[in-house]
Amino acid sequence: MLVAAGAEAAGLYGRVARLLARRGTVRGRVLMVLLTGSGVTAVLSNDATPLVLTPAIFAAGPAGARATTDSAFAATFIADGASLLLPVSNPVNLLFFERFELGFWGYLAMVTPAAAAGAAVLAAVTMRQAAGEEAASAPVWTASARPVGPALVVVAGLGAAYVGAGVAGFPLGLVTLAGGLAMAAAARLGGPVDGRQFRRHIAPGVLAFVAGLVLLVENVVAAGALDWLAGLLGWLEGGPALVTVGGAAVVAAVLANLMNNWPAALVIAAAIGSRPGEHEALVTGALIGSTLGANFTMVGSLSTVFWVSLSRQYGASYGVSEYARRAFVPTLAGMAARRRRGAGGERALLRLAVSAR
Question: Which of 106, 154, 220, 308 is deepest in the core (most CB within 10 A)?
Answer without folding.
Answer: 154
